[in-house]
Amino acid sequence: MTADAASPVDTVFRADRVVTAQGTVPADVGVRAGTIVSISAYGEGPPGRVVELGGDEVLLPGLVDSHVHVDEPGRTSWEGYASATRAAAAGGVTTIIDMPLNSIPPTVDSAALQVKREAAQGQCYVDVGFWGGAVPGNLAELRPLYDAGVFGFKCFLLDSGVEEFAPLNPAELAAAMAAVADFDGLVIVHAEDAGVVGSAPAAAGPEYDTFLRSRPAEAEVLAIQAVVEAARRSGARTHVLHLSSAAALPVIAAARADGLRVTAETCPHYLALAAEEVPVGATAFKCCPPIRERANQDLLWRGLADGVIDCVVSDHSPATLELKLPADGSFGTAWGGISSLQLGLPVVWTAARARGVPLARVVSWLAAGPARVAGLTRKGAMTVGCDADLVVFAPDETFVVDPGRLYHKVPVTPYAGRTLSGVVRRTFLRGVELSGSKPRGRLLTRGDA
Predict the structure, then answer these.
(1) Are 127 and 442 spatial neighbours (Cβ–Cβ below 8 Å)?
(2) DSSP 3-state assignment of 277?
(3) What is the DSSP pairing of strand 49-52 with strand 127-130?
(4) What is the sign of the dihedral through the CA atoms of 196, 201, 207 and 209?
(5) How many CB atoms neighbour CB 121 within 10 A?
(6) Helix 217-234 and helix 249-257, axial crossing angle in degrees, nearest 10
(7) For helices 217-234 and 170-181, what crossing angle results, to 10°?
(8) What tens digit of pLDDT does each residue of 41-74 get?
């Protein structure tokens, strides 16, 4: 199928089903020095040690999660590099990109990026890259951060929940986008309108409906409209984070039709969980923007199918038990964030197969899509020249989610007790199996990944 199929390799991965860029096929995947060097017909690969998959297993490219809050240093009790990346590896995620908050200091200048890198060094079981942050007053720091290797710049349009990472007002957003456009960087936006959220009834008590009303769908629509207009004026590449409101899909589609470089992501919880199902006081389900109604969920799936939504990422955002599960079960006081780094593939696959969506399509949303948005040219695809980040996946095997078996530092998940389809049996990083005994991940910089 590809060149270089005759030269010896380190390892040949042989499977009846290999998810490649050309489709799911029986194939031999040749790996040399950590790189995919050949994809051949089944049984016709080059000489080398053979790893043969079972008949119930599928070989996937390693997944990419470009939206992960690791929180170290500063809030390491919430999550850390060792725990987060072990969870990622167990879930078939071989590359993560760490958000610039909720760590202290946030990644808003080059010195803070160096602190992050020093904290992560030697702890990572998978490869880790870093986003920078755009906050009031750090305009002059954006280009140095970009030159230091961040993959882009995150900003908020309303309170982020932590005082170290303030939101941008419309003028500051316009200035940040113009500055980033000068070097063709990427601005990624938590897009909820501060005015709409500020005028909505405040969340209080254990009833989920009160929280849902506090973050109206209109807040996302208006904010995304503002982001699109700022992108139109500046020419900046722009990415909409964790889209939960399907009402904003026409805004994104229209922007693309106009030639704007606007992309969008959604998350497993928006595709698998519905507002109607959230139990009273179940603050493990709280996230911002919120999980919305089942009818809205159906439209998000359509947005993925139509290509308006580019990828699916976790927005893994844990907190301590005390913050996430307050004694009174109040959605007003609980921390907003869902831990799912280890579970993203089975969560999305379980929901997708019920809708008749093939596994290869799911993998494209969880691997190639995030890699493309972030500019990770060697990741997320079963293609010659890419890193040999590979996952052995049993799509028909089921399991019940036990929070105690997750590697996340804080064992809280809204999926607890759910039966999911799809088990990650083995994960390889650059051709080497990850056992959990030795961190093998590298720290990535933009341009070398």
Answers:
(1) yes
(2) helix
(3) unpaired
(4) negative
(5) 12
(6) 20
(7) 40
(8) 999 999 999 999 999 999 999 999 999 999 999 9
Question: What span, in angstroms and rounded, lies between the C-alpha atoms of 328 and 334?
Answer: 9
Angle between helices 249-257 and 294-306 (to 10 degrees): 20
Instruction: Look at residue 99 and give its three-state secondary structure.
Output: coil
Can you tell me the distance from the alpha carbon of 45 to that of 41, in angstroms, rounded to the nearest whole number? Answer: 7
Q: Give the CA distances from residue 153 to residues 68, 76, 163, 318, in Å, rounded to whole numbers and listed in that order.
A: 14, 22, 18, 21
Which residues, other chains included, contact 46 with Cβ-Cβ below 8 Å and sequence gap of 6+? 4, 5, 6, 7, 8, 9, 12, 28, 30, 38, 40
Contact 211, 177 (CB under 8 A): no
8 Å CB contact between 10 and 388 = no
Q: How deeply is 118 buried, as exposed, middle or buried, from its count of CB atoms within 10 A (0-12, 13-18, 19+)? A: exposed
Q: In what order do the strands lie in the sheet with 127-130?
A: 63-68, 93-98, 127-130
For residue 21, what pLDDT is reported?
86
Q: Which residues contact 273 (CB under 8 A, 6 or more apart)?
A: 285, 291, 414
With beta carbons less than 8 A apart as the criterion, state whether 443 and 107 touch: no
Could you read off the pLDDT of 298-333 as tens digits, one per residue? Answer: 999 999 999 999 999 999 999 999 999 999 999 999
CA–CA separation, 269 vs 291, rounded Å?
7
- Cα 428 to Cα 56, 125, 188, 203: the distances in Å are 18, 10, 29, 44
Cα distance between residue 61 and residue 86, in whole Å: 18
- The closest of 33, 40, 57 to 4, measured between CA atoms, is 40
Tokens of 301: 């799936």
How would DSSP label each residue in 297-347? HHHHHHHHHHTSS-EE---B----HHHHS-TT--TTTS---B--TTTHHHH
Residue pLDDT, tens place only, 137-172: 999 999 999 999 999 999 999 999 999 999 999 999
* Cβ–Cβ < 8 Å for 100, 140: no
| Nearest of 340, 338, 346 to residue 419 by alpha carbon | 346
DSSP reduced 3-state for 31: strand
Query: CA-CA distances (angstroms) from residue 182 to 143, 228, 354, 439?
Result: 9, 17, 45, 37
- Token pair, residue 140, equals 């002059």
- Tokens 């029986």 label which residue? 26
